Amino acid sequence: MPTSEDLDAIVATVHQEMQAHLGEGRVADYIPALARVDPRQFGIAIVTCDGRTAAAGDAETPFSIQSVSKVFTLVLAMNRLDEGLWRRVGREPSGSRFNSIVQLEQERGIPRNPFINAGAIVVTDAVLAGGRPREAIADIAGFMRRLALDEAVSIDPEVAASEEETGFRNASLAYFLRGFDNLQSPVEEVLEVYFNQCALRMTCRQLARAGLFLAQGGLDPLNQIQVTSPERTRRINAIMMTCGHYDASGEFAYRVGLPGKSGVGGGILAIAPRRAAIGVWSPGLCEAGNSLVGQMALQRLVALTGWSVF
Ligand code: GLU
Question: Of these residues, 14, 37, 47, 67, which one is catalytic?
Answer without folding.
Answer: 67
